[in-house]
Design a protein that fits this description.
Layout lengths: L4 H10 L15 H12 L6 H4 L2 H15 L16 H15 L1 H4 L11 E4 L3 E4 L2 H8 L3 H12 L3 E3 L5 E4 L4 H15 L10 E5 L6 E5 L5 E4 L11 H10 L1
Helix pairs in contact: 8-9
């Protein structure tokens, strides 16, 4: 029985003994090469503006650096980023001192302690009162007002510019109050310098402490009366008034 053409075609498709032939790649012809050249010539060219872009410049710099370092031998003593924190801190301080010699040449001022002597049985005498006021650059009146308010007593300045205080006080007590005065009315809170001046604003009637080193300025509080214990004389004076 003869098979139909459709059955023969189906049999050829189901025959697994035959191997499929691989398709050969077409070799580029002369016309194809010409087409490739045309496509290459038709590719967009780099203009001068694009060549001068930052990315192009950076790429050229990297290429030049790589070419210059191609024949170099690495230095075994090159530490690169192996600095420690104390070394970096020392380098920073050296740079600051080199660029700011005023910070290095700043002198440390030493102040003499207050010299207190007994004057009779109920008074004390501050001998170097004028010298202390001159060293801290403050007026005698301002320092006198502060000490009288803090001690809660009375006093006066004699002809030799010595401070006479009513009451018996030890040098340690006067030194503590002097440190408090310097901290509040002399020392700069920004650079801790004692090279300051105290001025009074005529409009606001406030005192301002201006630093002559860093230029900072701050307002200082008014001098207020400290604690004053009521003595027998005060009670007697109060009874006499009534």
């Amino acid at each position: 029985m003869a098979s139909t053409p459709e059955e023969d075609e189906m049999a050829q498709l189901l025959d697994l003994t035959k191997k499929k032939k691989k398709k050969k790649k077409a070799k580029p012809t002369a016309a194809g090469g010409a087409d490739d050249k045309k496509s290459a010539s038709s590719a967009p060219t780099v203009t001068d503006d694009e060549d001068a872009s930052p990315s192009r410049i950076f790429q050229r710099a990297e290429i030049a650096a790589d070419e210059s370092l191609a024949g170099c031998v690495p230095d075994p003593s090159d530490r690169r980023a192996s600095y420690t924190y104390p070394e970096l801190l020392d380098r920073a301080l050296d740079a600051i001192h080199a660029n700011n010699p005023d910070l290095v040449d700043r002198e440390r001022r030493s102040m003499k302690p207050p010299q207190i002597q007994k004057l009779g049985t109920k008074k004390s005498l501050w001998v170097n009162f004028q010298e202390v006021c001159t060293m801290i650059r403050r007026s005698h009146e301002h320092v006198f007002t502060f000490f009288m308010a803090e001690l809660g007593t009375e006093g006066n300045i004699d002809g030799n510019h010595r401070l006479v205080i009513r009451g018996r006080y030890q040098p340690r007590q006067i030194e503590i109050l002097l440190r408090k005065y310097i901290l509040e009315y002399v020392t700069c809170q920004m650079c801790r310098s004692a090279n300051t001046e105290l001025t009074k604003d005529s409009v606001s009637r406030l005192h301002f402490c201006r630093c002559l080193e860093c230029g900072s300025q701050r307002s200082v509080g008014a001098i207020r009366s400290g604690y004053h214990a009521t003595s027998r004389a005060d009670r007697r004076a109060a009874r006499n008034k009534t």
